[in-house]
Amino acid sequence: MAVYVVGSPTTPSLPMVAFNNLFATGTLLASTETTNGAAANAIVEGTYNYWIPSALPATLQVTLSGATLCNTMAVVAHDYGTKGATVIFEYFNVTWITITTVVPTDDSPIMIIFADTTATQWRIRITGSTVPATGVVYLAARLVIPGGVKAPYTPVWQADRVELMHSGSLGGKFINNRAVKRGRETMISLASVTRTFAEVNLNAFRLKFNEGSPFLWASGPSIFPKDVGYCWRKGGEMRPTFDQDAIWMALEMDVAADA
Q1: Are 89 and 3 in contact (CB under 8 A)?
Q2: Which parts of the chain fold into alpha helices (H)?
Q3: Sheet strands (E) in the chain
C-alpha cells in the first residue's frame, strides 16, 4: 500500500487511523456496473468483492446527507496496475475538482491524505483502455494520534506472516519448503496520549477496533509512505492504560493486515 500526501494536510508526519467509511453511509451512484460487479461491492468491508464497470471512463460517486469535512480517500483492493488504469480522486463544488491523480504501477492499495475539505459529493474516476476491478473505496476524516509510534515497531508492509511446510528425507536431508502466506501481523505501541484524548477523541475508534471492524492505518504518511495498511484487531482489545500520574494513557494495538 502507498500513501500520497496532497497539498498541506494537518500534521502529516503523525500516525493516523481512518475508521468511518463515508462512502458506505451516503447514496452511491456508479456510471455503469456489471452483473457480477455491482457498485455496492465497492463499499463492503471485505476485500474479495469488486465493482466492475462495463466501460471506461467510469465513476463511482457518493452523495452524503450534507456537506461533510473529509481529508482521506483510499482504494484498498484493485487491479489498476495490471490493467493499466488511472484513478482520479475528486469532490464537487460547482464543478468536479480533482484532488489528485494516481497512476499505479502495481495492484497494492492506494490512500491519499489532503487538507480538510468540505463537500457533499465525492467520487473516484477511472480511466484507461481495460476495465479494472475496484473494491473497498474509502472516504473519511482521519484521526491523528499525537505522540508517534514507540519502538520497537515492525512496519505493516514488512510484517509478513509466512508458514513453511518443510519436506525432508528420513536421513535428515533438505528436499524443499513450501511457503504459505498468512497475511501480515504487527504490534503497534503508541506514545502516551493525554487522558482527554484517550477518553474523548479516541473513544469512537476504540469501540470500532474492539468490535473487529477494519480501518486504515498509517504510522507517518509524509515520512513512511509505504507503511500503510488496511488493518483489523488480531489480539486483545484496545484498553487505554493510566500512565504517568493518571494524566497520560498508554495505547497498544495488536493487528492483522490485508497482504
Answers
A1: no
A2: 80-83, 195-196, 203-210
A3: 2-6, 16-18, 27-30, 58-78, 86-93, 95-102, 110-127, 134-140, 143-144, 160-168, 174-194, 215-218, 228-233, 241-243, 248-257
The set of cell numbers assigned to 223 is 515520512
Separation in Å, CA 13 to CA 20, 75, 137, 138, 194: 21, 21, 24, 21, 19
Q: 3-state DSSP call for residue 44?
A: coil
Average pLDDT, the chain: 93
pTM of the model: 0.91
Decide if 90 contacts 97 (C-beta within 8 A): yes
81 pLDDT higher than 90: yes
Task: Transcribe 154-199 into DSSP letters.
Answer: --GGG-EEEEEEEEE-TTS-EEEEEEEEEEEEEEEEEEEEEHHIII
Query: Cell numbers of 90, please?
Result: 475528486
pLDDT band at 166; cut points 50, 70, 90: confident
Residue 246 buriedness (CB in 10 A; 0-12 / 13-18 / 19+): exposed
